[in-house]
């Protein structure tokens, strides 16, 4: 028989004309869409939904299975379940070191213990093991959560911060992986359930707060990064023509006055010099020239007054700059004082974005989920969160942040081979003049950035003197230089 | 052995339902001769019993409750007897349709037994009563050739049944749905699904002019209006779809569906503006997490169940389906997803689709328009019901609270669906008794 397309089409048309067939096709489409909707739900969203405190199934599964391990990026155990006298006891080998980021699950849940709760109580053990467990009446072992945390760097950072209160965040510039998250004061998650009363009674140290994400600090001069960005955005061609002569203080708004750190007078400055030497007067003067509405929207893009793409508990950063805000608000905010508040994590994300050619990556704390036997259950891939700068803008900011190290307040890092870039900050707080938090945020190497480091030390003094050396120890450890 | 079966049961369930689906696709195809078809049909019975057995063995092992064994044996004996009686009474009965019906009933009996033993027992008694009654249905259809002239009776019965509820009914979950005779609670809206399709099918088979549609629509809209007043929007939706599609099949005009879609959306908008409970349903659908302890409770618990169960489920008796209110009626699909897995529950969706497409195929082979429209109408009614309950529980569409045919708890729903299946059986048998005509070739099933 000869094949005839026309006949075939006629045949198809006759079929499609039949109302019963049309109805069949319609329902087939709806049923398929409905099944697909469930499949997609399970693939994409169901985990965020079911890891909810209202889902009592987590409690049920926790009784059914042995809570799985939390491990570092190289498989070192950070949290595990041990059987002591027939009882399951959660054990944290590093005690205080990962207290906030790994969290605890003995008295409620926090940190990774919280965001991966459902994973830890779900067992994807092999069928054979499950049958064996069933036969012997033992429980199945929950899945292992592989984090992005680096034990070695976390130790270095924690040691470097020493007895100070504060926070350190280190992320991978290309992927947004969180390598280090230190917060002090801390506590021992092994004994948190018995220590609970004394821990919450000690309101002075607030050791339960994860300062890296929940700490609200005045950013001080690190905020000049945002001033610089806004000035470049408003003057894309002639931003480097700006000059200013610093006499140590600036008068504005009929008699109000701001001064440079310790009243220093910087003399005649280019924009790059002003940034490197962190001249308050030059930047206050710069800020007074801004279109305030535009600056507010730039700051929104930079995630101020906005949610962060962070699963860990955090606080939203705050800035008061808006269209029509007062000179005083603008000037105070432009040097990171007054009402502006930021979390160290947020500052780190912006730094990471600058280093990554303007693209902020979604911070990652969980790398993958494995069954207790080591089979991969789910792999999390890095994802772009938001472009905060064009590549050209990011390059300029990088260059300026490099001169902070070569000619400015970050000169402690000058001699290092890895070409660090950054910005220091000394943020005054409280009522006593002169008390300040030391800040540094930066990345290295300049040409192909690998890690972004943010350091906040409460009440230590100037960023250049206290925060930069700590950052240096972390950079040194990462890039393999020995230090003493 | 026991541990092996209970730990692997969920995989066995998936394999079984996929094989059953495959057997359906094979048997719907006319290219096999009768003996091959018989073998496939036989394997369908075996697959059904296998699924049933795995389910009850798992329940028995995990609960150590010996009643599960006796209940399983009891059901098997009765159902095999019923199948034998069917074959004796009607040697030409459509086995495919019959065995598909039993497969759904088996899934339902496993899930209901898991939820509550007494519930499953009660449901099985209902099942038994209607199965015995349905022995007579094909006989009645064959013996009363004037069934297609009874349209006023169908309309009268349907409207009266619905009105009884309004006048003598009691309020269940905020909707007036049921009236009681003695200990039995009758949900009229269920039975009227049948009478409404019979009315539309018989009337449209007799009067094919466009002006006659108006009368058919008016009568159908009276049904729907009563339901809207009694706040049963799910059933109202099912009636509406039956009406639109039956007029479509009779008029063969695609504009019917477009008009129906516009009218449907229009009335939904109107209902949204008029009724607060509709507003709540829509808001919950859009964001169930807003009020997780209040209006969003049912839906979020349902999503927890599906999500926690994952691809292969937590295993029978290992989940917490009872956290979902009305789990045995409106949310049994989510309970199946939780404990038997999403692979299984999605396969179940396609099994429903297969049966509905098979009904459409049977409808096309009818020589008599009344039969054709009736079978087609039942298919549309069941399909809509599946979409409303599965889609509602999985946040595909807003929640309306209807049952999953042949699986959910509820005597009225079960009786209605089994009656639909037996009426289809009767019509197929009556159709074959007439002189055979060339059957139209069929396209793919899924």
Layout: helices, strands, pairs:
The complex is a heterodimer of chains A (484) and B (446).
Chain A: H1 5-17, H2 19-50, H3 57-64, E1 65-66, E2 70-71, E3 77-84, E4 87-91, H4 99-102, H5 111-115, H6 117-121, H7 127-136, E5 140-141, E6 144-147, H8 151-161, E7 166-172, E8 178-184, H9 192-201, H10 211-214, H11 224-234, E9 243-246, E10 249-252, E11 256-259, E12 267-270, H12 271-276, H13 280-288, H14 292-301, H15 327-334, H16 344-355, E13 359-361, E14 366-370, E15 376-379, E16 384-387, H17 391-407, E17 421-428, E18 436-444, E19 451-457, H18 463-479
Parallel strand pairs in A: 1-5, 2-6
Antiparallel strand pairs in A: 2-3, 3-4, 6-14, 7-8, 7-19, 9-12, 10-11, 13-16, 14-15, 17-18, 18-19
Chain B: H1 2-28, H2 34-63, H3 67-89, H4 95-115, H5 117-134, H6 137-143, H7 151-168, E1 170-172, E2 175-181, E3 184-187, H8 188-206, H9 210-229, H10 233-251, H11 255-274, H12 276-286, H13 297-309, H14 332-340, H15 342-364, H16 369-393, H17 411-433
Antiparallel strand pairs in B: 1-2, 2-3
Helix pairs in contact in B: 1-2, 1-15, 2-3, 2-4, 3-5, 4-5, 5-17, 6-17, 7-8, 7-9, 8-9, 8-10, 8-16, 8-17, 9-10, 10-11, 10-16, 11-12, 13-14, 14-15, 15-16, 16-17
Short summary:
The complex is a heterodimer of chains A (484) and B (446). Chain A has 484 residues and is α+β, with helices and mostly antiparallel strands.
Please, could you describe this protein's structure?
The complex is a heterodimer of chains A (484) and B (446). Among the domains of chain A are: 5-50; 214-363 and 385-479, 3-Layer(aba) Sandwich (Beta-lactamase), CATH 3.40.710. Chain A contains 18 helices and 19 strands. Chain A has helices at 5-17, 19-50, 57-64, 99-102, 111-115, 117-121, 127-136, 151-161, 192-201, 211-214, 224-234, 271-276, 280-288, 292-301, 327-334, 344-355, 391-407, 463-479; strands spanning 65-66, 70-71, 77-84, 87-91, 140-141, 144-147, 166-172, 178-184, 243-246, 249-252, 256-259, 267-270, 359-361, 366-370, 376-379, 384-387, 421-428, 436-444, 451-457. In chain A, the strands form 6 sheets. In chain A, strands 4-3-2-6-14-15 form a 6-stranded mixed beta sheet, with no helix packed on it. In chain A, helix 8 (151-161) packs antiparallel against helix 18 (463-479) and helix 13 packs across helix 15 (327-334). Chain A is globular and about 85 Å long. With 446 residues, chain B is mostly helical. Residues 438-446 of chain B have low confidence and may be disordered. Chain B has a 3-stranded antiparallel beta sheet. Chain B is built from 17 helices and 3 strands. Chain B is 73% helix and 3% strand. Chain B folds into 2 domains: 2-135 and 279-433, no CATH class; 147-270. The chains are: A alpha+beta (484), B mainly alpha (446). At the A-B interface, helix 2, helix 3 and helix 7 of A face helix 1, helix 10, helix 13, helix 15 and helix 16 of B.
């Amino acid at each position: 028989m000869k094949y005839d397309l026309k006949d075939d089409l006629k045949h198809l048309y006759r079929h499609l004309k039949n109302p019963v067939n049309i109805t069949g096709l319609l329902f087939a489409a709806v049923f398929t869409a409905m099944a697909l909707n469930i499949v997609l739900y399970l693939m994409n969203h169901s985990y965020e939904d079911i890891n909810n405190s209202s889902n009592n199934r987590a409690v049920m599964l926790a009784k059914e299975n042995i809570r799985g391990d939390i491990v570092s990026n190289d498989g070192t155990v950070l949290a595990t379940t041990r059987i002591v006298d027939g009882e399951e006891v959660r054990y944290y080998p590093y005690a205080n070191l990962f207290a906030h980021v790994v969290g605890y699950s003995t008295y409620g849940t926090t940190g990774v213990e919280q965001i991966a709760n459902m994973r830890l109580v779900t067992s994807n053990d092999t069928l054979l093991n499950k049958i064996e467990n069933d036969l012997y009446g033992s429980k199945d072992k929950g899945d292992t959560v592989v984090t992005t945390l680096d034990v070695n760097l976390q130790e270095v950072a924690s040691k470097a911060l020493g007895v100070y209160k504060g926070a350190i965040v280190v992320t991978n510039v290309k992927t947004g992986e969180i390598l280090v998250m230190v917060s002090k004061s801390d506590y021992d998650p092994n004994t948190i359930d018995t220590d609970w009363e004394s821990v919450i009674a000690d309101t002075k140290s607030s050791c339960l707060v994860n300062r890296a994400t929940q700490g609200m600090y005045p950013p001080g001069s690190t905020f000049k990064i945002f001033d610089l960005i806004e000035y470049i955005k408003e003057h894309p061609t002639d931003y480097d023509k700006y000059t200013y002569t610093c006499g140590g203080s600036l008068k504005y708004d009929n008699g109000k006055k701001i001064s440079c750190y310790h009243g220093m007078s910087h003399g005649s400055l280019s924009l790059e010099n002003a940034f490197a030497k962190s001249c308050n007067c030059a930047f206050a003067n710069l800020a007074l020239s801004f279109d305030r509405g535009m600056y507010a929207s730039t700051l929104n893009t930079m995630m101020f007054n906005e949610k962060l793409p962070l699963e860990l508990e955090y606080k939203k950063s705050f800035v008061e700059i808006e269209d029509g805000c007062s000179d005083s608000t603008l000037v105070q905010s432009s040097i990171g004082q007054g009402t502006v508040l930021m979390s160290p994590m947020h500052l780190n994300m912006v730094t990471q974005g600058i280093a990554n050619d303007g693209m902020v990556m979604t911070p990652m704390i969980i790398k993958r989920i494995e069954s207790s036997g080591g089979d991969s259950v789910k792999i999390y891939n890095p994802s772009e969160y938001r472009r905060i700068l064009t590549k050209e803008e990011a390059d300029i900011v990088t260059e300026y942040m490099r001169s902070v190290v070569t000619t400015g307040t970050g000169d402690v890092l000058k001699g290092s081979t890895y070409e660090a870039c950054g910005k220091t900050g000394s943020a005054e707080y409280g009522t006593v003049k002169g008390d300040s938090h030391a800040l540094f945020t930066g990345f290295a190497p300049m040409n192909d950035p690998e890690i972004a480091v943010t350091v906040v030390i409460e009440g230590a003094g100037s960023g250049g003197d206290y925060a930069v050396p700590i950052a240096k120890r972390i950079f040194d450890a990462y890039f393999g230089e020995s230090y003493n | 052995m026991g541990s092996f079966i209970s730990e692997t049961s969920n995989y066995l369930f998936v394999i079984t339902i996929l094989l059953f689906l495959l057997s359906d696709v094979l048997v719907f195809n006319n290219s096999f001769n009768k003996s091959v078809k018989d073998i496939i049909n036989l394997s369908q019975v075996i697959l059904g019993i296998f699924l049933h057995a795995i389910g009850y063995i798992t329940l028995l092992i995990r609960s150590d409750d010996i009643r599960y064994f006796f209940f399983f044996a009891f059901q098997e004996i009765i159902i095999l007897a019923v199948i034998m009686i069917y074959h004796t009474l009607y040697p030409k009965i459509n086995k495919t349709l019959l065995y598909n019906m039993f497969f759904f009933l088996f899934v339902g009996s496993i899930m209901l037994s898991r939820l509550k033993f007494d519930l499953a027992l009660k449901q099985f008694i209902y099942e038994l009563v209607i199965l015995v009654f349905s022995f007579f249905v094909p006989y009645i259809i064959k013996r009363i050739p004037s069934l297609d002239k009874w349209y006023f009776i169908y309309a009268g019965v349907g409207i009266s049944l619905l009105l009884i509820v309004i006048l003598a009914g009691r309020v269940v979950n905020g909707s007036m749905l049921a009236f009681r005779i003695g200990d039995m609670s009758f949900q009229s809206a269920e039975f009227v699904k049948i009478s409404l399709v019979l009315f539309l099918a018989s009337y449209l088979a007799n009067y094919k002019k466009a002006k006659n549609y108006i009368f058919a629509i008016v009568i159908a809209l009276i049904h729907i209006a009563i339901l809207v007043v009694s706040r049963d929007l799910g059933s109202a939706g099912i009636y509406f779809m039956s009406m639109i599609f039956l007029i479509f099949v009779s008029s063969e005009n695609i504009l019917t569906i477009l008009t129906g879609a516009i009218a449907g959306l229009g009335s939904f908008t109107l209902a949204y503006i008029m009724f607060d409970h509709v507003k709540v349903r829509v808001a919950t659908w859009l964001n169930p997490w807003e009020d997780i302890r209040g209006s969003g409770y049912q839906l979020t618990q349902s999503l927890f169940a599906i999500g926690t169960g994952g691809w292969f489920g937590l295993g029978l008796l290992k989940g917490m389906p009872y956290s979902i209110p009305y789990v045995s009626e409106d949310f049994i699909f989510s309970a199946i997803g939780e404990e038997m897995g999403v692979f299984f529950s999605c396969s179940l969706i396609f099994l429903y689709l297969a049966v509905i497409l098979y009904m459409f195929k049977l409808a096309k082979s009818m020589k008599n328009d009344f039969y054709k429209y009736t079978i087609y109408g039942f298919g549309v009614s069941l399909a809509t019901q599946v979409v409303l309950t599965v889609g509602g529980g999985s946040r595909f569409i807003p929640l309306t609270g209807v049952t999953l045919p042949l699986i959910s708890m509820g005597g009225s729903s079960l009786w209605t669906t089994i009656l639909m299946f037996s009426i289809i059986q009767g019509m197929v048998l009556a159709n074959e008794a007439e002189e055979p005509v060339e059957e139209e070739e069929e396209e793919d099933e899924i």
